[in-house]
Amino acid sequence: MKKVVIYGVKNSELRKDIEFFLDDNYKIVGYSDTYFMSSGIDGMPFIPPCQLCHWEFDYILLAAQQKAARMEIRQSLLSYGIPIEKVIEPMILLRKNAEKCTLDLIEDIRCHYRGECGLIFGLSYSRKGICKKELKMPFYDCSLPGLDLYYNLRVYTYMVEKGLLANLKLVLFVFPYNYFVYDMSKSFAQYESGQIFAIRQLNDWHHYEQVEGAKDYVESYRMFGKKIARQYCSCWYDVESPYPYRDNGRKMPLENLWFAEYEETAIENEMLFSEFCLKLKRGGVNPVLVIPPVYLEGIDQASYNAFLEKKEHFYHVVHKTEKKAGKLKVFDYADRFANQPDFFRDLTHLNTMGREKFTNLINTEIL
């Protein structure tokens, strides 16, 4: 059991949240504060900051809402000889708790997977862009916003290890052209948004140590994730997006990932994709690649050039994978709605009307 000191007494609401949501594998052994003196708090010892270095603990949790205050406390603790790796900001309790609105994907699989013969893997383009209930055969959707190739494979491996996929016949990979240069664990935005919390139960944070600031999120998820998820039990719900995309005649840029290279990530994802396809085929499952639509008429020239470069790299990875895993079925809809803004809510995501059209294409051309 890991021992924790809470630093910050005045913010009683945050202090009580820490006490309430702290995982049972952690134990509070004392409290400390810069501007407070006492012999004890809630039956626990009060430890003056200058004496912390003489106490045995694994982490100090900073119970302060303001970032400036937390930075000041960090510097103060460093001056007292406290190792920086032991000082943790409980990020999951400090913000608007986006994690409370994030689907716990592993828990959802446990509760709602019913042995469907089809699985969908990908990210927001499939989770928000396909009407699962309208598909001609039953599918369970393993995709979620922001979910990269590594975690899609980890989710599939989890389901195999749990013996859940006896009926599996077909897998749809709904991947955009830029997917092979994307690593969720290396994107700080995925921690800030709480989206990476969706795979909390795997307790696999991949390359998080390479991302400045990610450690506080990961340690927060380990300390508080279980009880936060249990308390709020978020489930996925579809949100209608009825409004068409309007660019007012301007050509807009695609998001930054379309311009990124990330060679190390690309090499890793190439190996992961081959591994994924091989595992499926050896299990008698047909993987089908589906490239989601992009509103190409709305993007600027630099973005269109980046789009073509990513397309070339995407098919390079596909062809290399086919040499290892055999022929893949590919259905490319990237330019299918290229000049139809009424089908999009932004440059790369479909609205309600577009989702219906895309689902119909999958039914008629794939299924």
Key traits:
elongated; 367 residues; alpha/beta; four-stranded parallel β-sheet
How would you explain this protein's 3D organization?
The protein has helices at residues 12-21, 67-79, 91-94, 105-112, 124-127, 149-161, 188-192, 214-232, 263-282, 301-325, 352-366; strands spanning 2-7, 26-32, 40-41, 44-45, 59-62, 87-88, 118-122, 139-141, 170-174, 286-291, 329-332. It is of the alpha/beta class. Helix 9 crosses helix 10.
How do the helices and strands line up, and which of them pair or pack?
Layout lengths: L1 E6 L4 H10 L4 E7 L7 E2 L2 E2 L13 E4 L4 H13 L7 E2 L2 H4 L10 H8 L5 E5 L1 H4 L11 E3 L7 H13 L8 E5 L13 H5 L21 H19 L30 H20 L3 E6 L9 H25 L3 E4 L19 H15 L1
Parallel strand pairs: 1-2, 1-5, 5-6, 7-8, 7-9, 9-10, 10-11
Antiparallel strand pairs: 3-4
Helix pairs in contact: 9-10
